[in-house]
């Protein structure tokens, strides 16, 4: 009898232990499932950890909570003044708010800490481009590309710079290099389409959109641009076929229905 009881108690103990472990595992997974809880719980455990502050700021940026992002990037830098990624991201936030001098300060600091930080070089170039300081922007993009050869986003921004400088042919060549490096870089495809459209070169748009659709099949922006070019060339039935395809795939987008009736 006693052995049976002890065996039952032992079994019960194993079950209780398993239940407790399962509960703890579930609780831990709920922390991991929700990054907010994970980082906030980490903050309570290690309030002086710069990486935790950085992660909270990064998550806040992704969710559009700029106030929290500013607060926690600044705190990360206070805790670790040589945190180059925090300096860069804080600089990008200032750039988005049009506070270019503060953006320059933090981006330059990121590069001072880590000279081969190619992403910081590119972002510094974007700030200079926004300030219409084309010469400095060009230098920054070139330095980023010296440090990172395969860098489609930087090549794309370099194309934007050439376009802003009024050199459409060099911009087109640079955006072509962007899509060679990243065939799904939709912004580069769209920028090339816009340059051709502004020059009323509809035939080139047909060639370009054919290329783009090989990498981005059924992309509504590319298809819409192709349909518009076909309509401008008088190929209305071909254009209508594409608009019908777009209306079927995106019935709630009113502009496709309107264009179909043009």
From TrEMBL:
Signal peptide: 1-23
Domain of life of the source: Eukaryota
GO molecular function: mannosyltransferase activity
The UniProt record lists the keyword Signal: yes
Annotated Gene Ontology cellular component terms: endoplasmic reticulum
GO BP annotations listed: endoplasmic reticulum unfolded protein response; protein O-linked glycosylation via mannose
UniProt KW keywords: Membrane, Repeat, Signal, TPR repeat, Transmembrane
Segments forming a coiled coil: none
SMART domains: TPR (SM00028)
Placement of TPR repeats on the sequence: 50-83, 84-117, 118-151, 152-185
InterPro entries to which the protein is assigned, alphabetical: O-mannosyl-transferase_TMTC, TPR-like_helical_dom_sf, TPR_rpt
Protein name: Transmembrane and TPR repeat-containing protein CG5038
Organismal lineage: Eukaryota, Metazoa, Ecdysozoa, Arthropoda, Hexapoda
């Amino acid at each position: 009898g006693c052995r049976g009881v002890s065996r039952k108690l032992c079994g019960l103990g194993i079950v209780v232990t398993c239940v407790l472990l399962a509960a703890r595992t579930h609780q831990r997974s709920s922390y991991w499932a929700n990054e907010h809880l994970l980082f906030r719980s980490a903050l309570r455990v290690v309030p002086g950890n710069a990486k935790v502050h950085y992660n909270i700021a990064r998550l806040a940026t992704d969710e559009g909570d700029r106030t929290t992002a500013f607060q926690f990037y600044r705190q990360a830098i206070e805790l670790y003044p040589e945190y180059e990624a925090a300096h860069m991201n804080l600089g990008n936030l200032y750039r988005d708010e049009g506070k270019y001098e503060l953006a320059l300060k933090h981006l330059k600091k990121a590069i001072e800490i880590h000279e081969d930080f190619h992403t910081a070089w590119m972002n510094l170039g974007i700030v200079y481009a926004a300030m219409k300081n084309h010469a400095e922007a060009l230098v920054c993009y070139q330095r980023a590309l010296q440090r990172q050869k395969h860098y489609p986003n930087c090549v794309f921004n370099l194309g934007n710079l050439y376009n802003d400088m009024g050199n459409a042919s060099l911009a087109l060549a640079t955006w072509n290099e962007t899509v060679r490096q990243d065939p799904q870089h939709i912004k580069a495809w769209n920028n090339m389409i816009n340059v051709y459209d502004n020059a009323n070169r509809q035939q080139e748009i047909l060639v370009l959109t054919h290329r783009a659709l090989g990498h981005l099949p059924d992309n509504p922006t590319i298809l819409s641009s192709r349909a518009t070019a076909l309509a401008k060339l008088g190929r209305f039935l071909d254009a209508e076929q594409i608009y019908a395809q777009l209306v079927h795939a995106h019935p709630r987008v009113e502009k496709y229905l309107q264009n179909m009736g043009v």
